[in-house]
Write a structure and sequence with these properties.
Mean pLDDT of chain A: 85
Oligomer: heterodimer
Largest sheet of chain A: 2 strands, antiparallel
Shape of chain A: globular
Strand content of chain A: under 5%
Radius of gyration of chain A: 20 Å
Largest sheet of chain B: 2 strands, antiparallel
CATH topology of chain A: ABC transporter involved in vitamin B12 uptake, BtuC
Number of strands of chain A: 4
Number of strands of chain B: 6
Mean pLDDT of chain B: 84
Helix content of chain A: over 70%
Number of domains of chain A: 1
Order of helices and strands of chain A: HHHHHHEHEEHHHHEHHHH
Strand order of the largest sheet of chain B: 1-2
Structural class of chain B: mainly alpha
Strand content of chain B: under 5%
CATH architecture of chain A: Orthogonal Bundle
CATH class of chain A: Mainly Alpha
Structural class of chain A: mainly alpha
Largest interface: A-B, 49 and 49 residues
Low-confidence stretches of chain A: 324-332
């Protein structure tokens, strides 16, 4: 029992270790790295990725995958920009509407996956195409937002000043709130337990009488909602909507989840791990920016290697503890 | 089981082509009626020109990819890294060709060798480290473009070597060379899988890898081999892509082509859960996708909006293949769920 308890937390500890190591390395190597501004930016700049990763964590915990994240973020951002700018809608109406559309989009994919037993990977791939194209139908180019609501309220009135120069942006507040909410849902509600059960072993979950169909559809609805919310935050962050943005964001989100120690075949992992995963991605980017002479493509290579490292670690743990996970991975 | 199963198998080979061919014919009929000049083919300077030839020409990259993808999917896996491998192969070829004193054969061999190494890497992760294929190939998909950028130094490398530009722009037997290359690869793949036991092994591994291991099929080697082959196909496609535009663009070469390749294989009747595969079906599927794309361009649909019909096509095709969907519609279909 003690051993199983321990092995559950090893990936999480490894994630924490990598995060601290990266941060310490940054502080040691570069001047000004150890500053409030860098730390705040880490949250502010990665808020939309973090929210998208929250949705991805739920889906991956259940043993599924959602590839439509980046497209839905882009679609939502251009939709909000078009609704408030081109069509003159009130932001208070436009924002819930956009979130509703995102959730409905996810629900549609969930229904296809559950009712017709289609592979999640393929359905969300179709969703990725669809959302990307729909974004371009809404408006074919990037659209700046000049609405006073977005310019003043969100970015100036709602950001919390920490000292004379640095303030905590509203986007980061959104992220922290969503993260806390997701943590409660994942670890302290019945729905959260259903998700873990689904990812652990779906036939068993069904035999136990858990509402598999409802959970699955709700799960993808939630993922769609998270993506739309990430789109909203992205709109706050960039003050514009762009249908061509966020290509490949889903991969970053999945990478953050994996680096956060969540098992990709589902059933094991922590929301807190994903938060650290997002921060690790942000730290890598910041380190490369501070270094100055390295190109951004190093980010991709390092992220790819980290993902590999964590998957190998998971396999090693599965092997060492002799749980059934290893055989499950072979089955795929 | 044996005699009628074999009989069933023989009839199904043609049967499986009915849906993709029907879709392609429907699309062509639509163009025959509504799109002017779609079927106009002419001979200019001894070469064939026209929209249909263009479809074949541009579709050849997806055909090449879908051959490798079909085999990978048949083993129950998927290869998401083909787009990135294309970029890597193109980058290697462009770098080598611009070096002095490198013979042309070595350039081609080098690019393909690197692509095969990429395929082996995927195979290694899937067979030795037992990582799920989606994730294992995702790693190279994410990191591969970075590697390609590293090779090109972040630049778009152009070249003018006649041999290398011939791959994507030359003509052979009156047809553009990419078509000939794709058809040649199709021929080789069909021969290798249908005239030897290899195809049967691949299908058995995808159908039930434990049962096939019990009957003495080396599932590991088979899986490794299909990822290697997928890398090879992606390398060839990458050479064609780079040659076509006479430069290596690490960011955009083969972007999203992995999705087209997967779609082509699925349209062609191969189930994503593994088992039987249909190479000719995959080729017809690739042509269907390219025809769809070209039709949209000819009808002035912007390239950005083009994913919408593609997405709808994926969903319709998947629903038609889904046993659960058929049951709901009450279709009496003899085909067993895959």
């Amino acid at each position: 029992m003690r051993q199983r308890f321990g092995s559950k937390y090893i990936p999480l500890l490894a994630t924490a270790f990598v995060m601290l190591a990266l941060y310490t390395a940054g502080c040691g190597l570069y001047r000004n790295f150890f500053s409030l501004r860098v730390a705040v930016n880490l949250f502010g700049d990665n808020a939309f990725l973090g929210i998208a990763a929250v949705g991805a964590t739920f889906v991956i915990l259940s043993g599924g995958i959602d590839l439509s994240v980046g497209s839905v973020v882009a679609f939502t951002s251009i939709l909000i920009a078009a609704m408030t700018g081109k069509w003159g809608l009130d932001p208070w109406l436009a924002m819930p509407l956009a979130l509703l559309i995102g959730a409905a989009f996810g629900a549609g994919m969930g229904c296809l996956i559950q009712w017709f037993e289609l592979p999640p990977f393929l359905v969300t791939l179709a969703g990725m195409f669809l959302a990307r194209g729909l974004g371009f139908i809404v408006h074919p180019q990037a659209l700046g937002i000049r609405h006073a609501f977005f310019l003043h309220l969100i970015n100036e009135d709602l950001s919390l000043p920490l000292n004379a120069k640095v303030s905590w942006p509203f986007t980061a507040t959104c992220y922290v709130l969503i993260f806390l909410l997701a943590m409660v849902v994942a670890h302290y509600t019945k729905f959260g337990r259903y998700i873990y059960a689904l990812g652990g072993d779906e036939p068993s979950a069904r035999l136990m009488g858990l509402p598999v169909a409802r959970t699955k559809i709700l799960l993808y609805t939630m993922s769609g909602f998270c993506s739309a919310l990430a789109g909203l935050v992205y709109t706050f962050y960039t003050q514009s909507g762009n249908p061509a943005s966020c290509v490949g964001l889903e991969l970053d989100a999945i990478a953050a989840v994996v680096i956060g120690g969540t098992l990709l075949s589902g059933g094991a992992g922590f929301m807190a791990g994903t938060l650290m995963g997002v921060l690790i991605l942000g730290l890598i980017q910041t380190l490369i920016t501070f270094q100055g002479n390295l190109n951004t493509w190093w980010t991709r290579i390092v992220v790819g290697l980290l993902v590999l490292l964590f998957i190998l670690l998971q396999n090693l743990i599965a092997l060492a503890t002799g749980r059934g996970r290893g055989s499950k991975a072979v089955g795929n | 089981m044996q005699p009628d199963r074999l009989q069933e198998r023989k009839t199904r080979w043609w049967f499986s082509l009915v849906w993709p061919v029907a879709a392609l014919v429907l699309l062509l009929l639509f163009n025959l009626v509504f799109t002017q000049g779609f079927f106009h083919v002419e001979v200019r300077d001894g070469y064939l020109y026209g929209t249909l030839i263009d479809i074949l020409n541009h579709g050849s990259m997806v055909i090449l990819l879908s051959l490798g993808m079909a085999l990978v999917i048949a083993t129950g896996g998927v290869d998401l890294s083909v787009g990135a491998v294309m970029a890597i192969a193109g980058a290697v070829a462009a770098q080598l060709i611009n070096m002095p004193n490198v013979p042309f054969a070595l350039v081609i061999a080098g690019a393909i060798a690197v692509a095969i190494v990429c395929g082996c890497w995927n195979g290694l992760l899937v067979t030795i480290f037992k990582i799920q294929p989606i994730v294992a190939t995702l790693i190279l998909m994410v990191a591969g473009r970075g590697v390609a950028q590293l090779i090109t130094g972040g630049q778009i490398i152009t070249f003018t070597h006649p041999g290398l530009t011939y791959l994507g722009n030359g003509h052979c037997l009156g047809l553009p060379f990419p078509i000939v290359l794709a058809l040649g690869m199709l021929g080789i793949t069909v021969l290798l899988t249908r005239k030897t036991a290899l195809g049967l092994f691949i299908e058995s591994v995808g159908d039930n890898h434990i049962a096939s291991a019990c009957s003495g099929v080396d599932a590991r080697s088979i899986k490794f081999l299909v990822y290697l082959f997928s890398g090879l196909c992606a390398g060839l496609a990458g050479l064609v892509a780079a040659s076509n535009i006479k430069c290596a663009d690490a960011n955009h070469a083969g972007l999203f082509l992995e999705l087209d390749a997967i779609l082509a294989v699925v349209v062609g009747g191969t189930s994503l859960t593994g088992g039987r595969f249909y190479l000719v079906g995959a080729v017809v599927g690739a042509l269907f996708i390219q025809t769809l794309t070209t039709t949209m361009y000819m009808r002035n649909v912007s390239a950005d909006v083009a994913p919408v019909p593609k997405a709808l096509a994926i969903i319709v095709v998947c629903l038609m293949q889904s046993p659960a969907f058929r049951q709901r519609l009450g279709w009496s279909w003899k085909r067993k769920p895959a």
